[in-house]
């Protein structure tokens, strides 16, 4: 029962992490900057994400523009996109594999060892998906930090970490933690002992002594 509860907890955490990765990928707030002109009315907040850039006026109006061409984007942004999409697809595969190996499901009940190995395999895929999202968000955050501290970057165009990055970091951590819990349900190998040798029984005495 304890391993089943740990398995269920791992799946829930990994699933929530996968949902967070999707939300982080879709959000435009990967990096943000605020700019205020001579009049506070002209203040606006700028957001840039993986798919679009947005500008929010002080009046609350938000205008977003999808990136025109994929080929015109920076290679680092394209790589970040690819890693996040790969993390989402891997998480989807991990869900189906882990559900098959869950103890609460009736699939593969005739072979419990293979069933538990499916859950472990799903946990491994969740860990890979979490690592892909973690690499993508950390790489993007490093680029934002380097541009912010670059003395040649204009003050009005310096971006900071957006909320999508923090969500991505938390989601990747949940996916890795949940995958690790699923891997803890790995079936232990039973120690096999050699069969004990029986001692020969003494032959019944016939009452005759041979010389």
TrEMBL record:
Keywords: Cell junction, Cell membrane, Membrane, Tight junction, Transmembrane, Transmembrane helix
Region: Disordered, residue numbers: 191-211
One GO term describing the cellular component: bicellular tight junction
Subcellular location: Cell junction, Tight junction; Cell membrane
Membrane topology term: Multi-pass membrane protein
Main localization category: other
InterPro entries linked: Claudin, Claudin1, Claudin_CS, PMP22/EMP/MP20/Claudin
Gene Ontology molecular functions: structural molecule activity
UniProt xrefs under PANTHER family: CLAUDIN
Family per record: Belongs to the claudin family.
Name of this chain's protein: Claudin
Organism: Aegotheles bennettii
């Amino acid at each position: 029962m304890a391993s089943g509860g740990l398995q269920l907890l791992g799946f829930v955490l990994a699933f929530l992490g996968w949902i967070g990765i999707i939300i982080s990928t879709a959000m435009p707030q990967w990096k943000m900057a605020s700019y205020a002109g001579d009049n506070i009315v002209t203040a606006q907040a700028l957001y840039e994400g993986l798919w679009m850039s947005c500008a929010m006026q002080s009046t609350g109006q938000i205008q977003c523009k999808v990136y025109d061409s994929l080929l015109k984007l920076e290679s680092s942004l394209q790589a970040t996109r690819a890693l996040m999409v790969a993390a989402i697809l891997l998480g989807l595969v991990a869900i189906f594999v882990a559900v098959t190996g869950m103890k609460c499901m009736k699939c593969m009940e005739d072979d419990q060892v293979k069933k538990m190995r499916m859950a472990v395999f799903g946990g491994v895929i969740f860990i890979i998906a979490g690592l892909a999202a973690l690499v993508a968000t950390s790489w993007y955050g490093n680029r934002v930090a380097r541009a912010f501290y670059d003395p040649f970057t204009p003050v009005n165009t310096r971006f900071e970490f957006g909320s999508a990055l923090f969500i991505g970091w938390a989601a990747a951590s949940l996916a890795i933690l949940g995958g690790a819990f699923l891997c803890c349900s790995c079936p232990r190998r039973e120690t096999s002992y050699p069969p004990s040798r029986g001692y020969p029984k003494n032959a019944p005495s016939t009452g005759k002594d041979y010389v």
